[in-house]
UniProtKB/TrEMBL annotation:
Any Pfam family hit: Acyl_transf_3
Protein name, entry field: Acyltransferase family protein
Transmembrane segments: 63-84, 105-126, 181-199, 206-227, 233-255, 262-282, 288-306, 326-349, 355-372, 393-415
EC number(s) recorded for this UniProt protein: 2.3.1.-
Species whose genome carries this gene: Microbacterium invictum
A GO molecular-function annotation: acyltransferase activity
Sequence ranges assigned to domain SGNH in this UniProt record: 484-698
Keyword Aminoacyl-tRNA synthetase: no
UniProt keywords, alphabetically: Acyltransferase, Membrane, Transferase, Transmembrane, Transmembrane helix
PANTHER family for this protein: ACETYLTRANSFERASE (PTHR23028), ACYL_TRANSF_3 DOMAIN-CONTAINING PROTEIN (PTHR23028:SF53)
Annotated signal peptide: none
InterPro entries: Acyl_transf_3_dom, Acyltransferase_3, SGNH
Amino acid sequence: MPSADPALEPRLPGGTEDRRRRPAGGSPEHAESARFLPHVQGLRAIAVLCVVLYHFWPGRFPGGYIGVDIFFVISGFLITSHLMRELTTTGTVRLGQFWARRARRLLPASLLVLLFCALVAMTPYLTPTSALPNEVREILASTFYVENWYLAITSADYLNNGGEPTTVQHYWSLSLEEQFYVIWPLLMLLAAWAAVKWVRGAVRRSVITVLAVVSAASFVFCVVFTITDPAPAYFVTFGRMWQFGVGALIALVPLLRLRSAVASFVAGWAGIAALVWATFAYDGQTPFPGYAALVPTLGAGLIIAASNTDRWWYPTRVLSVRPAQFVGGISYSLYLWHWPLIIIAPSVPFWGLTIYHRVALLALCFVLAWLTKTFVEDPFRSWKVLTARPPRVTLWAALAAMLLVAGTAGAAWAVNAPAYNAGVRALAELRADPPECFGAASVLDPACEEAAAPDTILPAPGFAGADRPSDDQCFVQLNDARPVSCEFGSDAVDAPRVALIGDSHAFQLLPTFERMAERNGWHLTTFFKGACPWNTTPLSTPGAFGAACTEWREGVASALADREIDVVFTSALATTPYSSAGFDSSQDAAVAGYREAWSEMIDRGTPVVTVVDNPVWETDPNKCLRTRDASECDGLRADVLVADDPLREAAEGMAGVTLLDFTDVFCDDEVCRPVVGGANVYRDQDHLTVTFADTLEPWYEAAIRDALAAR
C-alpha cells in the first residue's frame, strides 16, 4: 500500500546529522534535513504497477499482489528512519505531531475515494442492490481503518475470492499500514525508555533489538498462521509486521546499506529479479504470505539497501528515471483509484471488458491519480489551516471527515433499504410461484416449445447475487476439515435416504434438494466443503487448504460408511486443480479419483447420480445484464464451458452412475447464455441462482427416482 510520504525519504541514519533545532510548534519531521532517495521512489512505481496490472490482468501477472509487500518494506524503512532521526535529535517522538502529519498525508485522498464509493453505493445503477449491505459494511470498516480485520474475521480469501468483492476491499492494506503507524512509534518509544532505564542510554541498540525481536516473532507467526489458516493470515496485522521490520532494520543497521559499487549493483539487480520472478511465478495457489513472502520482501529490501549511483546501469539510477519517478509520485492515489474503477466499470452502460476498454480504464486511473496528487494530496499536506495549529486540530478534523464518509455510507443504505427489502420479498415470491415455461423448462419441456420467453429477467440482475442458499452452517470452507452434515426432509424410518455431497457447485443445489426431499418424503443428508469435490485425488493446492480437503474427504467417507444411504447425488466445479502425481495428467488423476470415491458407494449397492458442470464466466454476467440486452451478454462456448469436464469422463460407461448433462440448456453450438427462458442463470461468475436451479428440479427428481427404483 503506497502511503509513505516523499518528504520522508531521509538521509540514511548513521551519516552526518544536521542537529538544527526545530522551529517552535513545527513538525519534528523537519528537525533535520533529509536526502531524497530516487531509487526508493522508483521502487514505489514497481510496487504499484505490480498491484494494478495484477488487478487488470490477473492471468498475465498472477503474482502481482506482491506489490503490497513491497510497500510494507518501503514504509518500514522510511518511517523508522524518520522516527529514529527524531529520537536521536530530541530524545523522544512527538506522537501527536507524527500522527497528525500522517493524517494530513493519507486521509484526504483516502476519504475522497471512500466518499466516491459511498456515493456509488447509493446509486442502484452502479451497485447491485444485493451487494449493498456488504458494500456499506466494508466502506465503514475502511473509513475507520479496520478493513483488514473485517476481512480476516469474515474469512475472505483475497487471492481466490469466488464471490463479488466490494469497491473498497483493497483498503485492507491501508488499514494494516495505519495500524503500523500507531504501533511502531510506540514500540520505538518503549525501546528508548528501556534503554534509558536499563541499558545506559544505548537507544539505537535497544531499538534495533526490540524491532528485531518483534519482526522475528511476527515472521514465525506469519509462517505458522499461513499454514494453519491462510485466509485470515493474509490480513492479520501481526503477521505482516516482519515486512515493515525488514525495512526498519535496513534503516537502522549501517552494515545493511550497501555503498560499494559491486555489492550495490549485485544486490539491486538481484532484488529486481526476485520481484519480477515472483510477479510471474506466484499465483492464487501460492501459500501466501508465509515463507513465500520472503522473496518480494527481501527483494525490496535489497533494492533499498543498494545505494551506489556511480553508473547509469546501476539499478539505483535505472529506478531514478523520470517515468519511474512520476509513477512513484502518484502511487498512493493510483492504488486508491484503480480498484473501485475496475469493480464499477462493467456496470457502466456501453462499457465492456475488451482489451481496449481495460487500457482506457487504466489510463483514466492514471489521470485521476495525478489530479488527486496535485489537488488533494499535496495541498492538504501543507494546508496552513491545519499545520499552523496544534496536532489535535488535525486529528479532530480527520475524525469529522471520517464521520462524514460513514454518514454517507449509512445514507446509501437508508436510501436503498426499501429496494433491498422489496427484492427479498420478490425473490421469495418468485421461488414459491415461478412463471410457466420458465428457465430450463423452456428448453427441456416439449410442452414449452411454442411458449414465448418472459419479457423480464427474474431475478433482476441487480438482485441475483442474493439468490443463494441460506444454510451456511452446512458449508465448511478454507481450512475447516470437519465433515459437517446437515439433515433435511422426512424423519420416518423407512424414508428413502438421499445424500448430496460436493463443493460449492453441490451446495448451490441445496434449496432445490430440500424442496424435493420435503415433497417426496425423502431424508436428505448433506456434506459440503468449498473448492473440495467428492474425489480421492489430492488437490494440487499446497499447504493447509489441500490437507484440509483430504482430511474432509476421509471424514466424509467414514461418515458414509456408518450410514444407510440409498442414493448419492454429487456435482463439482470442472476447473478444480488436481495433483497429477502418479498419472499422465491432472485430468486422468481427477477421473480416477471420482471413480474411486464413487466405487466405495456403488460396491455397497448405492447408486450415484452426478451432473456435468455449468459454464464458468470470467466475470459476473449480471454486470453486463444490468446495462445491456441479454443477447449482448452471451459468452462464447469455447470461453466459458470446460470441454473436458473430468466428472463427465468419470461417469461415462461406469456401472451404477447416472450422468445428467444440461449443457444444451446453457449453450447452443456457439454461445452460452446467462438468461434461459427468462430465468437469470447466475448469481456470480460460476454459481447458479437458486431460482434457476429450481427450474431443473423435475429432471433432478426423475434421476433420483430412477436410481432409487433400480436398487
